């Protein structure tokens, strides 16, 4: 009885400490990354420019969806990277989030347009369905399935560590 | 001038044009307030929708209000949100095999201690 | 220059504390001259550190932004009070304060003479080495003295408006005073174990210190709750946030501890409990620091996401814990626990009390760590919140209160006399039943657990009231702190239950000049103003309220601070005898209406009143101890 008590007094804290040690040593370099797969929600949104309706069926293959807005300051920083990325054969679809149409178009003129299409999600309904909590965020979509979701701005390092492995994994990114 | 300032000051893009949060009956209202306390703000480090001003929290509150008006159950609403923002948005930890350890261990622990306590005295 | 001096003094202090520890190891601890030397050494080390800290305060007051931490957390426009409080608004500075308080407790403890020189010196040595550990942590991983080179920002950091609040400013120091105070019983109990002489009544020596630390913790936690209530806007006073929980755990352990301390002389089993509890309380205090500062758990309070710091703290706490537990286990046999506690004696109730508190601590620990466990096991995130904690705390607390009222009639060293003793209890039960029926009539339907809580709250209050009256009539001694604290507990349970069942809220969409009503209260949106302040713009909505025949105005605001574009919501609260009327404004809708949130929070002031009663009872205990010594 006493022995049991004595051992448990030492063992229980030991278990707790080992647990915290394990948890702390876990690699958590990208807390903004989420690799949970889910189906791209069905939607019907207007094209930012010509207001034509686009539904999820129209988007095929592998591409990024980038959540952005003219009121989002961090997006300006990220945009530099995205325009540069545009050159390297990955398709980017823009999701303009809770933004005024004119403001958005003007912003793209000013900062460049790396997007193959821009969806105007004025109400943020598609964004809500995708679990967006703000801008900027980026999704990697492959054949109507979301395979990666990154919250926050993307830079070269994050692109390399979070997205590239998934893109490379399934073969070449779709050529434009 | 004041109106324009106010509009700029608090840009709010409502998902729903109709006034919301005014419920038809007390039950719905109670459900609403109870739900927004139980659902975690997806953007904040910690805290419920009730204590958060974040845009995504406001959106979720509106969604919840509309779903209640629509007749959806608490479970429907929680599933809707956790499907999109993760199970971690539910402060009411689900009771499933993976979480039995959480929910029942306190009572198991109590039982063990009480057994120790009474058993010791008899010896 | 001054920053360098301050830094240097801290380093010197570390060395002198190290020296103090060495002296304790090397010298003849039972000798008077060694004691004097050790005392002096400790005092010097303490004063060096204190001066270092005061110089740091001076740096903050004089806007010395060459110091990186001060540049990041203070601002030249802040009032002096907030320049000082900004020091503990983040990790490095608050750690600095933590150590100042830790060494302060040791200093004051050291002022008092103790017949048992060996044990006293040992305890000072233990405290010294613990301080060294923290000082090294501070200087190596969390240096508050880092210099910004070469250009110091002119005005400092953007002000976080949320931090400019008196309650929020005092809350951390009060908490820290509580947390670190438990180093005294911890160190002394370890010294006792090392010394090996079981007849020494260490419990008596540390009792007033432990109670004082407990009082600080009680007040610190209550301040946090009070601040959260008026600042965070959802009308709640406790969220079961991980960092609230890590403050609650040492408090629970400390409460069990101070109960158990009073029983030292009565039973060996309880003396073993006392040793274990003194280790547990201090460890939980340190654990709290670890959780908050390692960034391991997402919480409003998380200071820094720094795994390296987390590792250091974890290792440090592990060392302290395992050394003390090892010592505890090796000296277990010091106590001949064959003398069993009589069942249903007062000692047995205290033991049972320890079990109930232990279960609550276990459950809280479970709740805090389960998301981490789940994530490690299933690579998925979950949250644990109020539903879990309420489900555990409510029934356990009720069981504990049942035990409490039964234990009042128990006796030391004898089994409770079932036939003779319970007449006062039966009377209390009867009156409480009547009270419960009245409450039920007034409130209507309520969940069973709330009904039970009301009942037990009433039983506690009536039982103690009858006790006081009976003692007075029979000219018997009344243990005032016990009555005060436990009545406070009863009030706490009643208030929490009443708050939970009676409170309500409603949202209105209103335009100026519109009126709404709700629960016998009319709310008229009387004015909307745009205000400009030096550091923020605000929209202030004034409402004319009519309640219970009284008329008054409430003006909640929405503020936008220039520095970071931060938008805050300021609540407006009217305190009435049994409830608060609590107003916030939300967004403006497209049609020009404003979302207005009206809450009625019942009995919330009584919750803090009960905490104050408990804290007061602690002070009475200390006063009594000092009186008997004099």
Can you describe what's shown?
The complex is a heterotrimer of chains A (176), B (123) and C (630). Chain A has two domains: 1-30; 32-167, Glutaredoxin. In chain A, 39% of the residues lie in helices and 24% in strands. Chain A has helices at 2-25, 73-85, 101-111, 125-130, 156-169, and strands spanning 33-34, 38-39, 44-47, 53-55, 62-68, 92-97, 117-121, 137-142, 145-151. Chain A is elongated and about 80 Å long. Mean pLDDT of chain A is 87; it is low at 172-176. In chain B, α2 packs antiparallel against α3. In chain C, α7 packs antiparallel against α9 and α17 (448-473) packs antiparallel against α18. The longest helix of chain C has 33 residues, at 346-378. Chain C is flat and about 80 Å long. The model of chain C has no long low-confidence stretch (mean pLDDT 91). Chains in contact: A-B, A-C, B-C. At the B-C interface, α1, α2 and α5 of B face α13, α14, β1, β7 and β9 of C.
Structural category of chain A: alpha+beta
Run of helices and strands of chain A: HEEEEEHEHEHEEH
Number of strands of chain A: 9
Most extensive protein-chain contact, per-chain counts: B-C, 52 and 63 residues
Strand composition percent of chain A: 15-25%
Question: In CATH terms, what is the fold-level topology of the largest domain in chain A?
Answer: Glutaredoxin
Which properties best describe this structure?
heterotrimer, B: mainly alpha, 5 helices, C: 630 residues, 6-stranded antiparallel beta sheet, 19 helices, 11% strand, flat
Task: Summarize this structure briefly.
The complex is a heterotrimer of chains A (176), B (123) and C (630). Chain B is mostly helical and 123 residues long. Helices cover 58% and strands 0% of the residues of chain B.
Break the fold down into its secondary structure elements and pairings.
The complex is a heterotrimer of chains A (176), B (123) and C (630).
Chain A: H1 2-25, E1 33-34, E2 38-39, E3 44-47, E4 53-55, E5 62-68, H2 73-85, E6 92-97, H3 101-111, E7 117-121, H4 125-130, E8 137-142, E9 145-151, H5 156-169
Parallel strand pairs in A: 5-6, 6-7
Antiparallel strand pairs in A: 1-9, 2-9, 3-4, 3-7, 5-8, 8-9
Chain B: H1 2-9, H2 26-38, H3 55-69, H4 74-85, H5 100-122
Chain C: H1 2-26, H2 32-61, H3 68-73, H4 80-85, H5 91-111, H6 117-141, H7 166-181, H8 183-195, H9 202-231, H10 242-261, H11 268-294, H12 307-330, H13 346-378, H14 386-407, H15 418-421, H16 423-443, H17 448-473, H18 480-502, E1 504-510, E2 515-518, E3 521-532, E4 536-547, E5 550-554, E6 557-561, E7 567-570, E8 572-575, E9 579-588, E10 594-602, H19 604-629
Antiparallel strand pairs in C: 1-10, 2-3, 3-4, 4-5, 4-6, 6-7, 8-9, 9-10
Helix pairs in contact in C: 1-2, 1-6, 2-5, 2-6, 5-6, 5-7, 6-8, 6-12, 7-9, 8-9, 8-11, 9-10, 9-19, 10-11, 10-13, 11-12, 13-14, 14-17, 16-17, 17-18, 18-19
């Amino acid at each position: 009885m006493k022995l049991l008590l004595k051992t448990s007094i030492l063992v229980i804290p030991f278990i707790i400490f080992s647990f915290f040690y394990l948890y702390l040593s876990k690699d958590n370099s990208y807390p903004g990354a989420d690799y949970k797969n889910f189906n791209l929600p069905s939607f019907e949104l207007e094209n930012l420019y010509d207001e034509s309706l686009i539904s999820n069926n129209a988007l095929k293959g592998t591409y990024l969806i980038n959540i952005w807005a003219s009121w989002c300051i961090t997006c300006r920083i990220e945009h530099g990277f995205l325009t540069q990325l545009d050159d390297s054969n990955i398709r980017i679809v823009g999701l303009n989030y809770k933004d005024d149409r004119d403001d958005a178009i003007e912003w793209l003129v000013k900062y460049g347009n790396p997007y193959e299409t821009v969806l105007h999600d004025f109400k943020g309904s598609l964004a809500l369905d995708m679990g967006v909590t703000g801008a900027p965020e980026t999704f990697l979509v492959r054949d109507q399935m979301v395979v990666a979701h990154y919250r926050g701005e993307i830079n070269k390092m994050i692109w390399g560590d979070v997205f590239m492995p998934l893109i490379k994994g399934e073969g070449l990114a779709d050529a434009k | 001038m004041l109106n324009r300032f106010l509009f700029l000051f608090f840009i709010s893009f409502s998902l729903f044009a109709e006034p919301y949060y005014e419920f038809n009956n007390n039950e719905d209202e109670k459900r609403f307030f109870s739900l927004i306390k139980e659902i975690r703000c997806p953007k904040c480090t910690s805290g419920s929708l009730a204590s958060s001003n974040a845009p995504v929290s406001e959106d979720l509150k509106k969604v919840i209000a509309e779903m209640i008006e629509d007749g959806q159950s608490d479970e429907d609403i929680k599933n809707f949100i956790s499907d999109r923002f993760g199970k971690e948005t539910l402060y009411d930890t689900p009771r499933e095999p993976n979480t039995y350890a959480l929910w029942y261990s306190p009572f198991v622990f109590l039982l063990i201690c009480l057994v120790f306590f009474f058993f010791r005295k008899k010896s | 220059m001054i920053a360098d001096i301050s830094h240097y003094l801290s380093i010197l202090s570390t060395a002198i504390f190290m020296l103090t520890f060495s002296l304790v190891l090397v010298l003849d601890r039972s000798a008077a001259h060694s004691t004097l030397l050790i005392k002096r050494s400790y005092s010097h080390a303490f004063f060096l550190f204190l001066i270092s800290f005061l110089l740091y305060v001076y740096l903050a007051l004089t806007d010395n932004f060459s110091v990186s931490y001060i540049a990041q957390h203070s601002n030249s426009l802040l009032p002096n009070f907030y320049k000082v409080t900004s020091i503990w608004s983040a990790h490095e500075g608050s750690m600095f304060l933590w150590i100042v308080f830790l060494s302060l407790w040791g200093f004051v403890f050291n002022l008092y003479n103790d017949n048992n020189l060996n044990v006293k010196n040992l305890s000072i040595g233990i405290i010294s080495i613990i301080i060294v550990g923290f000082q090294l942590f501070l200087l190596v991983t969390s240096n508050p003295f880092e210099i910004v080179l070469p250009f110091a920002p002119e005005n400092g950091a953007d002000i976080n408006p949320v931090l400019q609040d008196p309650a929020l400013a005092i809350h951390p120091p009060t908490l820290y005073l509580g947390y670190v105070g438990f180093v005294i019983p911890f160190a002394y109990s370890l010294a006792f174990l090392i010394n090996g002489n079981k007849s020494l009544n260490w419990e008596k020596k540390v009792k007033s210190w432990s109670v004082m630390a407990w009082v600080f913790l009680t007040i610190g936690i209550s301040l946090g709750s009070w601040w959260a209530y008026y600042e965070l806007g959802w009308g709640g006073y406790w969220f079961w946030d991980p960092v609230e929980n890590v403050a609650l755990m040492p408090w629970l352990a400390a409460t069990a501890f101070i109960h158990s301390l009073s029983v030292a002389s009565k039973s060996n089993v309880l003396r073993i409990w006392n040793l274990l509890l003194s280790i547990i309380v201090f460890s939980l205090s340190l654990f709290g620091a670890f959780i908050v500062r390692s960034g391991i758990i997402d919480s409003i309070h998380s200071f820094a996401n720094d795994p390296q710091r987390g590792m250091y703290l974890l290792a440090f706490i592990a060392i302290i814990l395992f050394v003390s537990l090892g010592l505890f286990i090796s000296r277990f046999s010091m106590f001949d626990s064959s003398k069993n506690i009589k069942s249903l004696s007062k000692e047995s109730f205290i033991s049972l009390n320890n079990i109930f508190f232990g279960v609550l601590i276990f459950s809280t620990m479970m709740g805090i760590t389960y998301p981490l466990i789940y994530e490690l096991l299933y690579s998925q995130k979950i949250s644990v919140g109020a539903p879990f904690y309420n489900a555990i705390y409510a029934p356990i607390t009720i069981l504990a209160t049942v035990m409490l009222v039964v234990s009042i009639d128990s006796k030391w060293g004898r089994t409770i006399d079932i036939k003779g003793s319970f007449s006062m209890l039966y009377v209390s039960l009867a009156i409480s039943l009547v009270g419960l029926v009245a409450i039920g009539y007034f409130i209507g339907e309520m969940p069973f657990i709330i009904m039970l809580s009301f009942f037990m709250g009433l039983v506690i209050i009536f039982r103690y009231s009858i006790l006081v009256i009976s003692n007075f009539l029979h000219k018997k001694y009344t243990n005032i702190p016990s009555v005060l604290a436990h009545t406070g507990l009863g009030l706490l349970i009643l208030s929490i239950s009443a708050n939970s069942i009676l409170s309500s809220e409603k949202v209105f969409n209103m335009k100026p000049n519109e009126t709404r009503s709700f629960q016998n209260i009319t709310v008229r949106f009387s004015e909307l103003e745009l205000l400009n302040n030096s550091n923020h713009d605000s929209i202030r909505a004034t409402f004319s309220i009519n309640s219970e025949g009284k008329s008054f105005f409430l003006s909640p605001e929405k503020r936008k601070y220039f520095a970071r574009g931060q938008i805050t919501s300021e609540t407006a609260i009217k305190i009435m005898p049994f409830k608060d009327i609590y107003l916030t404004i939300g967004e403006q809708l497209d049609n020009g209406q404003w979302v207005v949130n009206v809450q009625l929070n019942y009995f919330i002031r009584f919750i803090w009143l009960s905490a104050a009663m408990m804290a007061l009872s602690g002070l009475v205990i200390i006063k009594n101890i000092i009186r008997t010594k004099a």
